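pasting for ref
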Amino acid sequence: MGLGCIMLSIGLILSIAIYTFAAHPTHLSIIGKTTPTLPGTFSTPPPKITCTTQPQQKGDKTISITSSGLKRTMLVHLASSYGIQPQALIINYHGYNSTMEHFAHYSNMETEADKAGFVLVFPQGVDNPPSWNAGVGARGPTGDANDIQFTRDMLNFLEKNYCVDTHRVYVTGYSLGGGMAYRVACSLSDQITALATVAGAFYPVPGGCQPAHPIPVLEIHGQADQFANFNGNPTLMTTSVPVYLHIWLTRDGCSHSSRVIFQRQDVTGIEWGRCVPGVMVEQYKVSDGGHTWPGGGSSATLGYTTHVIDANVVIWNFFRQFSK
């Protein structure tokens, strides 16, 4: 009789405990999923990765390295938020016959880097006038330097000396610099997370574009561009924008059906989202846009500049979706 009462009491206590735990569960969030913790323990967030590289000065700094026997330079811009946690890295290639300083001022991407908190690098091309070895044109290579090796050496230097997130390394560029970013994405896809180009001049890549894996791609182009013609230039052997996009749609396993994601005044945004998982292709067309950087400075010789969109904002909003 006494033993029965004891067993009944223990059962009642266990029932109350189980009910209380079920009604008030404790969960630990792990990459979007919840897992119950043991009763009596506390949930703690995973530790944040902190910077272990040497401190660097904020703002702009010109860095020189040696690559393929040549002295090569780059302009590195660090936001005020740099140095706490690893930040995304964007490499932005200037156009033909330009400099890293001029292009940094023209594109004004440093403003977006300061707001969003990413490491921004403007490499300097060599040759005279400054150019990039972005492919093969009607007059031979667009540049003579080994700019793929320079980019590889630059990435190794930056990843060793700066607090960058190697899972979020992006390349972009303007005009011939867009063509250079294209060749880099084709050749160094093991290190590149995503690609964006503005008014890109796309030349045939030696051996064809053969990335090791699919890459997200954004293309921004004016349909009235007279220097990097939207429909290509057979004389210069530049590829048309539709053909360039077709290359990436094929590489990324995308359906050729698209949808409009943005429409305002002279700008139309299009997305091909049915690609391999984690990849998409986007394009922003400016109906009356010239050979310009949307939202950037105006130039009578380069044609009309739209301010309906800011290329820097569009590029960063695209890049920030992807990590490898």
